[in-house]
Structures are given as C-alpha cells and as structure tokens.
Give the backbone structure.
Amino acid sequence: MLKLFKRYLKQYPGQVALIVFLTLVFTATTMILPKLSSPVIDAGTAGDTDSIVRYAIIMGVVVVIAVIAGVLNNYFISNVVMGTTRDMRNTLFERVISFSQEDENMIGTASLISRQSKDMLTLQMTLLQMFMMMLQAPLMCIAGIALALTTSVSLSWIIVVLLPLAAITMGIAIKMTQPIFRANQVKVDRVNGVMRETLTGMRVIRAFNREDYENRRFEDVSDDLTNNVKKGYKIMNLILPMIVFLANGSNLLILGFGADYMKKGLASYGDVQAFVQYTTMILMAFMLGSMFLMLMPNAQASAERINEVWDVVPSIKESSDPVKMPEVGNASIEVSHISYRFSGASQNVLTDISFSAKAGETIAIIGGTGSGKSTLLNVLCRNMDVTEGSVKIDGVDVRDTAQDDLKNHISLVPQKAFLFAGSIIDNIRYGKPDATEEEVRHALDISQSSEFVDKKEYGMYTYIAQAGTNVSGGQKQRLSIARALVRKADIYMFDDSFSALDYKTDAKLRGELAGELKNAVTIIVAQRVSTIKNADRILVLAEGKVVGDGTHDELMASNTVYREIAMSQLSESEVKGA
C-alpha cells in the first residue's frame, strides 16, 4: 500500500513537505497549551493578575497559530489526497481499457468495477487518515509523554501503567478486526457480481417470473456483507468506551495521588491539571492510531487488488520497434496457418487456419455455435494474439505494428451491437470523430438507418440512451454498421451483424455494401446462408478447423456440413436458384 501511495505522492513533493511542517506546528502548539495553562492556574490560585494576563496573551497567540496551521494543513491535505486519488483512478482506467478480452476475464468485470469504485474510495479515505491521524498521532503520543514527565515526575508512574494497558487493548482489537475487513472485499465483489448479472439478465428474469428468486439471491449476499461489516464495527465501537474507561481511570489516579503530592509539595494544582490533559491526549493519540491500524488491513487488501490489475501480464505485447503500416488504401489480408489457445487451456480453439484476400473480395465464415467464428475475428483484428502462425494486414504482421496504427486499417462491427449514451450522430462519429454531417448521412443511407432516423423528431441528433436501450435490436445493428462504415478502413469485419435484420433489409444492405466496399476486404461472420452465398470465398468452421473452403456452389456440391446448413435454411428452389 505504501509503495502504491509513494508512486503517486512523488508528484506533490512540495505540498507533502508543507503538510509535514504544518502538522508539526499544529501538534506543537496544541500540546504546549496545557503546559502554558499550568502557571495560569497557579497564578490564579495565588492571585497574580499580571502573570495571568501575560500567559493569556501568549496562549492567545499560540491558539491563533494553531488555527492557521490547522486550516492550511487541512487545505493541503485535501488537495494532495484528492489529486493522488484522481491520478490513481485515471491510470487504473487507462490500464483496464488497454486489456484484451482474455486479460479482462482473468479478473472479471464486476471485480474491476468494484476495484475502480470501492477499493479506490477505501484508499482515498486511508490516505486522508494517514495524513490527518497517523502523522499526528505518534507526534501527540511522544510529545504528550515527554511533556507529562517534565510537568510532574511524581505522577509519571501512572503513564508507565497506562500505556501497556492501552497498547494491549488496541492490539487485541486490531487482531480481531483484520480478517473481518479483509473478507469485506470479496463480499463486495459478490454483491456487485449478482447486481450486474441481474441487471444484464432482467428480461430473462421477468420472462420466467424469477424476481423473487433473484431478490433472495441478492439478499443472501447483501446480508452476508452486512453481517461481516457489522461484526467489524461492533469491535471498533468498543474502542471509544475502552479509551474513556482508561482515561477516567487514569484521571482518578492522577487526582487522587495528585492531591496527596500537592500536600507534600511534590506537585502544584496546575501541574495536576496539565498532567490530566496530557494523559487524555496520549490516550486520544492511541485511539487515533489504533483506529487507523484497524482500517489498514482493509486498505492493504484494496491496494493489493489495485496492484493485481497492474500485475496482469498483457497477453498482447506492443512491439519495441513497431513497423509503420502503409497508408489506408492498400487492402489485403493474409492468414497463414494460425492456431489459438486460451491461456491455461489444453486444446486449441482455432487450429491451422489459412486464407488470403485482396481489395474488393468478400470472405464469409460460417459454422455451428462454438465453432470459433468470433474468436477468429478477434484474432484477425488482434484483440487476441495467435498461438501459432501469423496474420498479415497490408503486408505487415499485426504483432509487429503499433495497436493504434493497426486499428486505423480495420473497422469492426461486433456480434453484440453496442451504442453509447449520446446523440445518433455522436455514436456514428465514434468511428471517425472528424466526420462531417454529409459523411454521417451517407453512412446512415448505406446501412439502411435513414428510414428510421429521419422519422425521429430530432433526426440524427436524437438522444440514444446508455447501451441503446431506446432503439430496437435491428436499429442498433444498423447504427453499429454505420459507425463502422464512416471510418473508411482497409478491412471491414462483420461479426454476425445482420442477425436482427429482416430479410428485405438484409438484402438491401448487402447490395449497398457491395458497391461501398469495393476497394476494401470484407469479412463476414454469419449464421444465414442467404447473407453469405454471394461471397467470393466461404470458410466453413467446425470445432475450430476449416472443414470447407470455396464458393456457395462449390460447397453445395462437395461439402456435407455446408449443405446441411443451407438445406436447413433455404427451400429447394432457393438452393437451386442460388
């Protein structure tokens, strides 16, 4: 945890040094006040008005200095803590957004969200308390002991008895709370996981009338977290009564023995009162320090979880000397004997796949569920790195070039159409931020989106809700296709991107795409034979292997797998007419 803080606090060396200085000033001025009050009390007892006024002026100056130091200290602490947390949050987000799909799956989406939110908030509060408590508590304790001993040596034995009792009490409390707070992190992940799964699967839950079951499932993990948190705070809430008990007990001893020492001339009334205040301050310092130490396991667990994100070894490594790809317009792709295996898996998902294509050619990929179609596209656009073989785009191995350079040559429409919160035009421009309205309009026309966009009150400026919940599945697919088209890339990849379209719209869209993408390579993953039957080359996948390769007519004549798929979808006349 301290290493994590140190990494980011380096950006604020001047302010951190100022915080340390102001903490020293504030602590010193606070701790000296009981020492100054002692002669005032004794002077009042003796009726020495001049001494009272003199010490009152000194105390007033000290109080003003303490207030100024305290206000400035809190200001700089807030500035450093908020700035450090912001930097940690931003760099963590940058790290996560650079993950491949495989890297993300290693930790899990729900866990990544809780690390970015709850764990980051925990570290923020810990850093705040570290500056406000942990820096001040040791100073208060050491200064309190030193000043108490110089105030009255006769009463010092009370501190010798008091400190071990306080230390033992705090040690027991810390030991009991450590495992409890560590367990909280895992339980929060479970709550987030169930919540996310429920929100994502809301339609299924309602369709099968399982709301009560999901409520009980959430209540179970929520109650588990609540009970664990309550257990920790019950122990923490015992600290204050224990400190009060020790403080009152020590005060009784101080006042009882102090009265006797006053009679014997070993201590004055002011000394006794000052000793009481210093003893209370010492115990308060113990309490502040112990509360911080009790929260340390929670903070340490959060820091470890943040560091786990940093410790993920990226499955996709950038080349140390990236090759510059040619300008967009040299469309070609060459896939040579590629295989892919997930990390830790015993079998390949893809095995020995080869094909090539040039500008104007369309490659179609078809196969059953789980045959590896989407995985192949992820490998081609380097969302995953091949285990064996190579993928070359425009003559350059995708592993030898920079990621941002590669992505400029590829435009992908994912299997699950996703739209961002914002207007339609903003979503289309996500593919090309500087696209003009004319370019956006053209992309909408080609993708067959204009017919429903123009019917909306604000046209292309109509607001799209988060994840596109206010448009239909087919409309989301068409807008996703428009976003890909506006990019003007060398290679266009469509991952089952026409599944939600009716046959009429599908046919019109494919007709428009044929003319629009005549200078690019088009790769289409589809379930419908009608969508791909006019492709220049069709690859048939089964269990990650190519079991068929050719045109529609060639495969119908020679490939059993393809023919079975086609016959299950097309009528006899359609098959013959194809």
